[in-house]
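Researcher: Here's the sequence for the chain we discussed earlier.
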Amino acid sequence: MVGKDDAVEAVRALTAGAGADAVVITASAPDNSPLELAGEIARDRAVVSVVGLLPLEIPRKTYYEKELSVVVSRSYGPGRYDPEYEERGRDYPIGYVRWTERRNLDAVLRAIETKRLDVASLITHRFAFDDVMSAYAVITGERPEPHLGVVLQYPASDKPAERPAPVAPSRAAGSSAPLGLAVVGTGGFATGVLLPALAEIDGAKLVATVSGRGLSAKHAADRFGAARVAESLDEALSLPEVDAAVIATRHASHAASAAKALRAGRDVFLEKPAAIDEAQLAALGEAVAASGARLQVGFNRRFAPFALEVADVFKHRRAGLVMTARVNAGLIPASSWIVDPEEGGGRIIGEGCHFIDLMASWAGADPTRVSAHAIGAEGGYQRADNVVVTVDFADGSVGTLIYTAMGDPGLGKERYEVFCEGTVAVIDDWRRLDVSHGGKTRTRRALKADKGHAEQLRRFVAACRSGAPSPTPWRTVEAVTRATFAAELSRKERVTVELTRATDAATQAAGDLRLAALNA
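Model: Thanks. This is the structure I predict for it:
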């Protein structure tokens, strides 16, 4: 290995003592010694580009005296860490960005193809994929061998991959056998909330996990006892022991995945939202009507113990309810997929649906009219994150949702107030319930916030096993979801939106909601 002094002398000899115009550091090091060497071999006002992983502790004396510029290179090139580019495929025009992440990769592959870049000489080991542990033993040093490039070889196959055909579930309706479940999407919410709750339900059995990231699906399968990891929803639906699908993927894929499972004769538990636009909602509704299978959307708060108590308090009322839901939602990055209209639908459609559904459950009626107002965009806050939504319900009740990202995170996230005929019920962050009537207040406290996730799943599994209808009917799911679409339209156009039930494909287009709004 060439020593530091040798490297300095070599560069001086090559540059007639001037030093290098540019230095690229590709080494990985636990200290800043590569930066020190780069400073010594660089000429005055040279550029030092850091590609490798090392502490950025710049030796001030050398870099100051030579007035060196330091550039930290982001791996792969422009587009890296940009969700618009990497996740949504929105390329940069070549006239503005010549070498993007993909174009860099294309150039390398062309160089390999034309033999201008030799990678074969870098390969020191090859292992069959079935012998992958031996490969890792070499890389980790468990098997001490000099190595550089370690290649895994997959078995050759000329047969094209076939998409498995859906089959009918093997479990008969009303059977006492456990309900076989395939969980599609194994992100943080599925593994932190849904799967632990399902594991506690008698009569539910996890058969398979599915994820776009195979490692997370395998981890979930191992942790919760699934028999297998499926590569896709199609493969899961080809398993006769799968009776129902639990779908917890990103919002844009919800409706299509649920419709596919319903058409395959599977009951479906679909995390909210049901859809992110009218076209998706219409397609899902058609699948619900045609399949006869159950669809339960994850509007869990209506099943929370305190929510059920509030419903019981007002069950004999004659007047409409006056309801408020205050949600201290907190900030999320503007780059998050959740706020992307095409992938997440935005926060009102993606999360606000919870609170409109909860008010609909207390009213026992569908939303009929929606008006929404948002703050301006000043101060760096997103308009769609700070909205006040007023909803009229068919029974004469009215509800107001205050959804804001501008609050103190130390304050509780959710607070609800319900007024009717001299009685007031207040839920504070699902830890306290106060019911006031006749000058007296009855208080209930919970040691742990319960938002109804476990109870909703328990009722879904029970309905599937017994043949009972879904715990939340499609009519309610459709009405609540369309109310969130109306809230977005109202916020943007500053109009009140009348909700009408769609009767054909034409009236299910977003433009017809707009027409209803402008005529209101």
